[in-house]
């Protein structure tokens, strides 16, 4: 496996705090990425650690039993209060969701030892905890990480970037309009440009307790990273506590795409994203994720 290189993007170049860049070779199904806070440490066997432990028992169960695969809670009182939230990808099943969040508590304390603030992201879920209130759906830091495929596309970067922009904006519109889960998947034809890799796939998701406007605004902010940092990369994701997205030149989610966009015409930029995309009614069986 190739080494992973991380570097901080200067704060004046990023709209989300604690934005990091990592170069990855796909696919890494079991990978996790951490974002350790700088808001102090707790002591071993302290009340703060006991509160984290209490949340590690309840939050995985609450997330896996939730229709939206989302849970948020707090335990304790100031100065030892711990706030935590977890969200699983919208195509996960309940058991996989609970196991992922449970692993998040274990990994967070190993990857960010004794840190009062930590977030751990996986393909299937994320977990974050803090001594500051991160539970509000209307504001707060997205605490984002940017993860970039280490391989470059073999077609003109600007053409690929334009196609990705269309796909991710359309998928973001879909996710924001999804009143059930704030989750959307999409695929876009690309065979007119690259016959070897004829499609681009994308996922967009927000916390399900966010309003459509707040969700779309959050996604819009991180989609602006595509032309800034992600030009020419075969895949990338921006993962955060409030919203996230991912795109690749291979399918990485379960089930049929909720959106299917046509390929751009040869020699022409991709068509604008479709307007007023409405998700289907809530119902049916959530597909099972195959790791």
From TrEMBL:
<feature type="compositionally biased region" description="Pro residues">
    <location>
        <begin position="267"/>
        <end position="282"/>
    </location>
</feature>
<feature type="domain" description="Gnk2-homologous">
    <location>
        <begin position="141"/>
        <end position="252"/>
    </location>
</feature>
<keyword id="KW-0732">Signal</keyword>
<dbReference type="InterPro" id="IPR002902">
    <property type="entry name" value="GNK2"/>
</dbReference>
<feature type="region of interest" description="Disordered">
    <location>
        <begin position="266"/>
        <end position="291"/>
    </location>
</feature>
<dbReference type="Pfam" id="PF01657">
    <property type="entry name" value="Stress-antifung"/>
</dbReference>
<feature type="signal peptide">
    <location>
        <begin position="1"/>
        <end position="30"/>
    </location>
</feature>
<feature type="domain" description="Gnk2-homologous">
    <location>
        <begin position="30"/>
        <end position="134"/>
    </location>
</feature>
<keyword id="KW-0677">Repeat</keyword>
<dbReference type="InterPro" id="IPR038408">
    <property type="entry name" value="GNK2_sf"/>
</dbReference>
<protein>
    <recommendedName>
        <fullName>Gnk2-homologous domain-containing protein</fullName>
    </recommendedName>
</protein>
